[in-house]
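Q: Could you write out the predicted structure for this multi-component system? I'm mainly interested in how the pieces pack against one another.
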Amino acid sequence: MANPALVRSSGINPITTSDAVVQVRDICKNYGDIEALRGINLEFERGKLTTLLGPSGCGKTTLLKIIAGLVPGTSGEIIVNGRVVTGPGPERAFVFQDFALMPWATVLRNVAFGLELKGMASAERTRIARRYIEQVGLAGFEEKYPHELSGGMRQRVGIARAFAVNADVLLLDEPFSAVDEQNRRKFQEDLLQLVEQEKKTFIFVTHSIEEAVYVSDRIVLLSPRPGRISQIIDPMIDRSATPDDIRRDAGYLDVVEEIWQGLRQYAE
Amino acid sequence: MQMSVSPAKLDNGIGASKEAPITRGQAIRIFADERRSFWIVLSLAILFFAWEVAGRIPISFAFPTFSETILAFGEMVADGSMLKAYILTLQPLVLGVIVSAAVGIALGVAMGLSEKAEWLLAPVFIVLQAAPMAALVPLVTFVYGIGLTAKTLAVIMLALPVIVLNSYKAVRHVNPSLVDMCRSFQGNRMQQIFKIIIPDASPVLFAGLRLGIAAGFIGVMLAELLITPTGIGDLITYHRSVANYAHMYAAVASIIAVSTLTLAGLQYVETHLLRPEKRRK
Amino acid sequence: MTLFGTRIPMMTSLIFWLLVWEIVGQLELMFLIPPISSIFMAGVELVQTGSWQSASIITLRSFVYGMALAISVGVPLGVLMGRVKVIDNIFGLWVNMFVSAPLSALVPVLMILFGLGETTVFVTVFLFAVWIIVLDARAGVMQVPASLVEMGCSYGASRWTIFTKIILLSALPEILAGIRIGLIRGVKGVVIGQILVSVIGYGELFELYSRSFDMERFWALTMLLFVAAMLLSAGVEHFEKRIEYYAGAR
């Protein structure tokens, strides 16, 4: 299968780059007798969007939470910006699958929450929060409560909150899974724009193959029980094309097909 | 209301889009659907009417009519005995509820946050809530006599386990995703507790407080009937002993009404202040 | 809780508290709190006495009759309220009111209507238990998924079949939960009723022991009641879990 759009590097030792922001070294995770993750080694490059893709039960969310420092690994270590991770840190921000918005707080306070926890003065954090609310397209909704927003708008709040703390690494845990299909496509396009603008490192978890191929610079395929890296794929998609052209592009479709062939054995 | 379409209606008129004028029956039906107060008035009226009829028959020599009871109530309000009784009854109730709320919420939250506190205290309160605590009320008199302290303690005995267990449940059911969110932004333990856990738990905390107050009403009535005839309990006991049944019924009905109105008021506060997602726009 | 790496079951803390009680009792700080061991001995003696046995039979009888009436009135009323809007509107107010009303205030009224006997206690049990059974049965019937009912219709089930085979079965977990809470409330009702009536059953015994300052027996009787209440609730909960096994997938 010679596909010019596809540069593939398989195996568990990806190419080591000097510009790795996040390094995952020999991470294993057991829940009691259940082995969730085994021997994960990965590096995430600065300014790139890497997707962890796999069927349910492959431990992709667990790996993301270990990188976030929310869940301790059983063995191995996570190194971010050259320092070993012992818990959550200011250089990483997390976007939650269920949005994790405080129902009692307005959009403005939700977005500013990360800054509020840091002890930033109210005026200052309001100013920053307003800027990011505008950037995600929610200007005018500052004083609304989460229950007054649609699912898509709620996740925009979650994304704005993560951006507001100005972290180097953004960890997104299936951020669009609770968003309907039309909005999801719009989101994916917006996400690409944000990657372009913000020059941050994105680690993205999804179970949608199309979504992964569309947004990623690199896709890490995980296989389940126990979660291991089965393949690493760099879909060299030409992002200068319009979104609609990309979705029709033969290279894009080939990568989707390639991944599906790799994953279909895990389908129930 | 279930609407049914009769076959006859379907037959006459293929162009079914013709708008039928609203009949009076439908108008009443719509009105009834939209007005909760209509049903409240109606169901009150039905019960009071049934009460009046039962009193007129009478089903028992000790069963006054509704109108007699209302008159007796008016009489007791007018001569001030009702007000005096409520002042006496509400004192231990308010005191007991305040103590139970402060202690109960603190203990419940601690149990929800710390495994050790949970291990030590949860089983005790589970037993106390399921057990008939009323059996212990007579003991209180041995230590504290028949004064305010004894009545307050009776209230606490019934209200505290309810408040503790609901606070505990409230904290345990806090959205774990929100706590993770707080941690991911490096919120420390204090910030987690005060900015996430307690606000997220507060609707259930408040509901627990409401249930505690309901239990407190039972406690105070029990104390007044059992230990020390004062307040409303005294009105009930006294009027029973002199066979003033209308007055006795009025006192019983009034304490039930007071407790219902208090609880309904608290529920209103709960839905309208504490839950923005349920608040009407 | 885990201690030194091993999980300690939660209920074991009760043993710790009983030990504390024993120590406090042995120190004879308060005549109110005799050591748990002598309470236990008094309990063993108590259950052999005729007065306890006949009191238990009286208590049990009022409880069983009261609960039977509460269930046989409460479940149908709750189901009706869940299905028929008019009935719901008329009874809703009263059920919601009495479920949290201070029913202890009503016992004196029952005492003059039904006399100082078993009937009053039986009615008290009924009044304590019935409202929550109604409310839970109503909630159970109302939250039957519409898709299940539509499924029944689409396969041509009659209204009666839908009602008995879909709605009632689907509401069963809630109905049982209501009965469990109703049982716990019923135990409280039987105790409150008997204590206030104070001339029959355990009420009479409590009155007797507290007047004669017989704390061992007083506590033994209380403990027996507590244990009975806990066992009853645990028993229904066990049964409920078996029902919830299928309800969990809903």
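A: Regarding packing and overall arrangement: Chains C and A do not touch (no CB pair under 8 Å).
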